[in-house]
Design goal:
This protein is of the alpha+beta class. The protein contains eight helices and ten strands. The two termini are about 25 Å apart.
Length: about 290
């Protein structure tokens, strides 16, 4: 799933490549992906892309008739398997047909370029919204403070205000916006903290360490991602991981084997030596978790 760094990089790429261009045609192939009907999809045609930004893990593209405040926002949540593919030119001028493979939406611009929003797999979760205010999107309206904008004191307050395992609290978008499964693994590894440590029991020193780790991991990932082409971002994300998706490989810090805990629809990775005092965490499906 694209998280804060990748969405920030996509926004930066669109600011460089698409802002200032006019939408020639907005095409919908997967009607289930477009979650709104007012304003209609046709309202985008002829509008200029004025801005491209981020709301947590949501991509926010502002459109309007002039270089002023956007009148309409295209807000996109790429979900687990969605992506944005920028095209310097499309092979065919023909409009998309409903159900055109993995393509959910297409935006054609006045210079012949544009972008597709695609989604792989059978579980379709990609969501796009055409709204006059991003706050109209339910997921945006519930977002907590951005992970790269929150102060240390607010970070501590929000973590301690949502009692639970630290891994789950970090990825709760109502607590902090932008952190997902991948970078939470990385943050906890840098902080040398168990993913199942309880937020209500964290000391001030642990909060300081965790906040510093969050800033380090997210800032470094943004620096590595911004400037990359959209097609290169997934590879850049994988290459920068210390423990996430590296099950069975050596920890880059201590050399111990990276381990995994699996859940129904996802998994987490960690280093027992760095994070849990050498004690492996049991798989939740098989036995009680070892904290």
């Amino acid at each position: 799933m694209p998280e804060l760094p990748e969405v920030e990089a996509l926004a930066a790429y669109l600011r460089e490549r698409a802002v200032g261009h006019t939408v020639q045609r907005f095409e919908v192939s997967s009607f289930s992906a477009l979650k709104t009907y007012d304003p209609p999809a046709t309202a985008v045609n002829g509008l200029k892309i004025i801005s491209a930004g981020r709301q947590g893990k949501f991509l926010d593209i502002g459109l309007g008739p002039e270089d002023e405040r956007p009148e309409i926002h295209l807000v996109i949540h790429l979900a687990r398997a969605g992506w944005l593919h920028y095209r310097d030119a499309f092979k065919s001028p023909a409009p998309l047909k409903p159900g055109s493979g993995p393509i959910a939406l297409r935006v054609r611009l006045d210079d012949g370029s544009g972008f597709d929003l695609t989604e792989a797999g059978t579980q379709k979760s990609l969501a796009a919204y055409l709204v006059r205010d991003p706050a109209e999107v339910p997921g945006v309206s519930r977002l907590g403070p951005d992970a790269l904008a929150v102060s240390r004191d607010e970070f501590a307050e929000r973590l301690r205000g949502r009692n639970g395992q630290v891994k789950g609290v970090l990825v709760d978008q109502e607590v902090l916006a932008g952190i997902g499964n991948a970078y939470s693994d990385e943050i906890l590894h840098v902080a040398k903290m168990s993913p199942f440590a309880l937020t209500g029991k964290l000391t001030d020193e642990q909060i300081d360490t965790l906040y510093a780790a969050m800033r380090e991991v997210e800032t470094d990932a943004v620096a590595r991602s911004v400037g990359q082409r959209a097609a290169e971002l997934k590879g850049e994300k994988r290459a920068g991981m210390r423990v996430h998706t590296r099950t069975g490989l050596p920890c880059p810090v201590c050399g111990d084997t990276v381990r995994e805990v699996s859940f129904a629809d996802k998994s987490l990775q960690y280093c027992a030596t760095c994070q849990t005092g050498g004690k492996p965490l049991a798989d939740r499906r098989l036995s009680k978790l070892i904290r």
